[in-house]
Specification:
Radius of gyration: 24 Å
Strand content: 25-35%
Largest sheet: 8 strands, antiparallel
């Protein structure tokens, strides 16, 4: 069985199959640069015996450019387009045709990457889970005008001069940093993938994946950018699932910047430099995630980066590399938080995959920490010093919101409407993107204001420099189940908070 194979039981669709030997099954297959065949087995999963195999089914062009994913470049006026194809550069030249809607288009070149079985760090990615990823192309669309609709399509120019084109897509370019306008952000983690045809596969344990995906597709017109903060397909070393995941989120990632973070199921593997010495990536050790998706990091193998969206400044940490004080990443986190001009970008957001702040999850509670050990001890002083508004985490598969916290204490008794100086950082677990749900501890955590054992996501809406709306929505119906607002002015950000006052002098 190929690592991407899915299966159905014949008698599930036709109850009397065992008597008649007749059944009808439907499968959805996607272009993965190879032919497909269907096989009939007896003996179930425990003792399968091959009975028959169909003739191969071929796609019209198995090498076609597919599954575009947008992401911010390193500058506010740059958008990257990354896609997958079967064309290496010795066969065709990758490019993107793009421009204003209704105007003459321009061409931009694309770089090409891939990876080999030898790039994998262990099993199953290096053994039974290996599948050729094809070629990954990224083009950098630069000097974009703010708030402008652009059309684009990916192509490959063949040696004979003809070009193989994808279908056309469009996106809206980002606002200028600090621009005062309506700006809407989606944040979630741990979504995974699932099969739309109802078939099963060995690694299928993200039952809410399509529920979240479909809700976000349904709501496309009502947000501007997406942050998927780690644990993307849960491929866990079965490489074909990356194609399946990029296909699943294509209706979102082809039209909105789809910014990702690194999770344990992307990066962790023993003796490979990951901070957590677990086998959770199935031997991928970060390579597929770092290649399949572009992030504006200085080094994509170190998955921390900053990005701007209008009045928002985001510091996306990599919890799978050392973040403790004295580490390279700690220095970067401080630099990222310190670099923002809060007059122009008042809304400062920190995020990492693992919970480096607060969670009432049962397994963290059983460890006695309500966080990843050492998280707050090292990072809380930075959140406090730089007055981070909200810190987001995944990894724990549920939703939870804390009070504003400073030095482990709730410092604001308000629940839903924060005015003036907020005094602390609000910590949010939003890991209910689709994977199997996590249980809460029965211990009453005083700092926890709202918990939900369900799939969902967060939407942030900045109306202007003084007004922010936070909404938690369930994936099942898209309705708001938890919310709060922050209303304040620049002087409230500058105000002296607890022991975090700026130094002063008596000199005049």
């Amino acid at each position: 069985m190929d690592d991407g194979a899915t299966y159905k039981f014949a008698n599930h669709s036709t109850a009397d199959y065992a008597n008649t030997g007749k059944a009808t099954l439907s499968f959805q297959i996607i272009n993965q640069r190879a032919d497909f065949s269907f096989a009939l087995f007896t003996g179930g999963l425990e003792n399968p015996k091959l009975v028959a195999v169909t003739d191969p089914i071929s796609f019209a062009n198995p090498k076609a450019p597919l599954y575009p994913r947008l992401a911010h470049g390193k500058a506010w006026d740059e958008m990257t387009v990354t896609w997958t194809s079967g064309y290496n550069i010795d066969e065709a030249t990758p490019l993107v045709e793009w421009g204003w809607k209704g105007h003459i288009k321009k061409l931009s070149p694309a770089g090409t990457l891939t990876f080999t079985r030898g790039s994998m760090c262990g099993a199953p990615a290096r053994t039974v889970g290996w599948r050729d990823p094809g070629f990954i192309h990224t083009s950098f669309l630069k000097d974009l005008w703010p708030n402008t609709i652009y059309e684009y399509r990916m192509g490959h120019m063949l040696k004979n001069g003809s070009t193989i084109w994808s279908k056309s897509y469009s996106f809206k370019s980002s606002p200028y940093p600090g621009q005062d306008s309506l700006q809407r952000v989606i944040i979630f983690g741990d979504m995974g993938k699932a099969e739309r045809d109802g078939s099963n596969e060995y690694s299928s344990y993200q039952p809410g994946s399509l529920i979240t995906t479909d809700q976000l597709i349904k709501d496309l017109d009502n947000y501007d950018i997406v942050f998927h903060i780690g644990d993307l397909p849960y491929a866990n070393g079965f490489l074909s699932q990356w194609d399946q995941f990029t296909k699943q989120v294509e209706p979102i990632s082809s039209v909105k910047p789809y910014m990702i973070a690194s999770g344990n199921h992307e990066r962790d593997y023993p003796n490979t430099g990951s901070f957590y010495n677990t086998p959770d990536s199935g031997g991928e050790c970060g390579v597929p995630a770092e290649t399949m998706y572009y992030v504006p990091a200085e080094n994509r193998a170190k998955f921390w980066y900053s990005t701007d969206y209008g009045m928002f400044h985001f510091c996306i940490a990599d919890s799978e590399h050392d973040w403790r004080e004295g580490s390279e990443q700690y220095a970067w986190i401080e630099k990222c938080l310190a670099s923002v001009d809060r007059n122009k970008q008042p809304w400062l957001i920190f995020s990492s995959h693992r919970v480096l702040g607060y969670s009432s999850n049962d397994w963290l509670a059983n460890e006695g920490a309500f966080e990843e050990p050492m998280g707050r001890a090292h990072l809380q002083k930075l959140w406090q010093k730089y007055k981070v508004d909200i810190a987001f985490y995944g990894h724990v598969h549920n939703y939870e919101r804390s009070c504003p916290i400073y030095q482990n204490q709730c410092v604001n008794s308000e629940i839903s409407h924060y005015f003036g100086t907020v005094n602390g950082t609000i910590h949010v677990v939003v890991g209910g993107g689709g994977s199997h749900l996590s249980e809460f501890t029965k211990i009453n955590t005083f700092w926890s204001l709202y918990k939900d054992h369900d799939w969902g996501f967060v939407k942030l809406t900045a109306f202007n420099h003084s007004s922010l709306l936070f909404e938690y929505k369930k994936s099942a119906d898209g309705e708001v189940y938890d919310s709060f607002t922050i209303s304040r002015d620049y002087k409230d950000v500058l105000a002296c908070v607890h022991d975090g006052c700026e130094a002063t002098t008596l000199a005049t």
